[in-house]
Amino acid sequence: MINEMYKDMTGKGSVIREFFTYANKKAAEIGAENIYNFSIGNPSVPTPKEFTDGLIKMLETKNPVALHGYSPSLGIDSTREAVAVSLNKRFGMNYTKDEIFMTTGAAGAIAHAIRCVVKDGDEVITFAPYFPEYVPYVTGTGAKLTIVPADIDTFQINFEEFEKALNPNVQAVLINSPNNPSGIVYSTDTIKKLAAILVKKQEEYGHDIYLISDEPYREIVFTGTDAPFVSAFYDNSICCYSFSKSVSLPGERIGYVAVNPACKDAKLIVLMCGQISRFTGHNCPPSLIQLGIENILYTTSDLSVYEKNKEILYKELTRIGYHVVEPGGTFYMFPRTPISDANEFCWKAAKEYNLIIVPGDSFNCPGHFRISYCVTTDMVEKSIPLFEKLYNSYN
């Protein structure tokens, strides 16, 4: 008999993908140039030349049997060592390769990290708005995901509600900064306050509470934004990183788990990740791509277009009348909808104005919509009159 849980999930697909599919279908009818597709976070700038050149050089000069062979279960040693050194140089940490586990993007990193520190019946807390895939990442372990409501005026952590949610069953807290979908970056003060609460609660409950930090947008931070390295402020922290956004490699599925060396079981957690892979069929990202990212640990793609697009959208949408909390990073913006039903608003935008935006309900923040502005600046500028017509249709 088939698994009923996964059967039920087939009827509850991603809202993001639903709007993305609609956009592609509509583009085939009227031309892609007539669709303003802000639905999905697919980077719009090329990967650094160093990455491509490095791959070409390896393909031309290295033994193909060795180059395309299986990597060790924890990842290639030289890659793990290079990642550790880069984190130490950039953030003043003291990682070794033994605290690094190579993964298939941040999704693979989070899935492994959660399985390391929770079991059936445990509880994980996260903060709205959050990436919808956190639900299967957590519930797939048998744990419960508890959502702290958003502070919609700042999108910083709602500490009052967080402290209400804390209880002895909580084993981990999952955060995402810079944040998808709001674009907000948790400040140093926010992270320090969060860490202090967790230290106190660990003592009160008599067990560790792990801070799992989802950081695929860590390098996309705008001028003047305070963007702390989360693991520097809390010992029991696990960083989950992806190269998908910073160097435009979403299709290559490459990332890592970095367990804070100050964590009591840091090296053991990495070894556990290798065992978890046996249950999930993860079996490491491709050897070629692991070796390739060694060349780009200190660089990024040209990310400047994202800040330029943000400036245009924030200025123009607030002028029109939308309420927007200004993003500090990423390539997302999360305005309020002028009506309470964000789904109705977003479908009207799509069907009447060819504006493809995503309702905030799936991020557990109704009354908002996400704009993914990893697109050309020309498209952003041409979309402004449509956003204005859409807003004025309600006002």
CATH topology heading of the largest domain: Aspartate Aminotransferase, domain 2
Percent in strands: 5-15%
Structural class: alpha/beta
The total of helices stands at 14
Number of domains: 2
Arithmetic mean of pLDDT: 95
Query: SSE order in H/E notation?
Result: HHEHHHEHEHEHEHEEEHHHEHEEEH
Set down the secondary structure blueprint.
Elements (H helix, E strand, L loop, with lengths): L3 H6 L5 H16 L5 E2 L11 H13 L2 H4 L9 H15 L8 E4 L1 H13 L5 E5 L6 H6 L4 E5 L10 H7 L4 E7 L11 H18 L4 E5 L22 E6 L12 E5 L6 H15 L6 H7 L10 H17 L11 E2 L8 H12 L1 E2 L1 E2 L9 E4 L4 H16 L3
Parallel strand pairs: 1-10, 3-4, 3-5, 5-6, 6-7
Antiparallel strand pairs: 2-8, 7-8, 9-12, 11-12
Helix pairs in contact: 3-11, 6-10, 12-14
Question: How do you describe this structure in short?
Answer:
This protein has 395 residues and is an alpha/beta fold. The chain has 14 helices and 12 strands.
Core attributes:
single chain, Aspartate Aminotransferase, domain 2, 395 residues, Aspartate Aminotransferase, domain 1, 7-stranded mixed β-sheet, alpha/beta, globular, 2 domains, 12 strands, 42% helix, 14 helices, 3-stranded antiparallel β-sheet
Description:
- The protein is of the alpha/beta class.
- The protein has 2 domains: 4-47 and 302-392, Aspartate Aminotransferase, domain 1 (Alpha-Beta Complex), CATH 3.90.1150; 70-296, Aspartate Aminotransferase, domain 2 (3-Layer(aba) Sandwich).
- It is built from 14 helices and 12 strands.
- The chain has helices at residues 4-9, 15-30, 49-61, 64-67, 77-91, 105-117, 134-139, 159-165, 188-205, 266-280, 287-293, 304-320, 342-353, 377-392; strands at residues 36-37, 100-103, 123-127, 144-148, 170-176, 210-214, 237-242, 255-259, 332-333, 355-356, 358-359, 369-372.
- The strands form 3 sheets. Strands 2-8-7-6-5-3-4 form a 7-stranded mixed β-sheet, sandwiched between helices. A 3-stranded antiparallel β-sheet has the order 9-12-11.
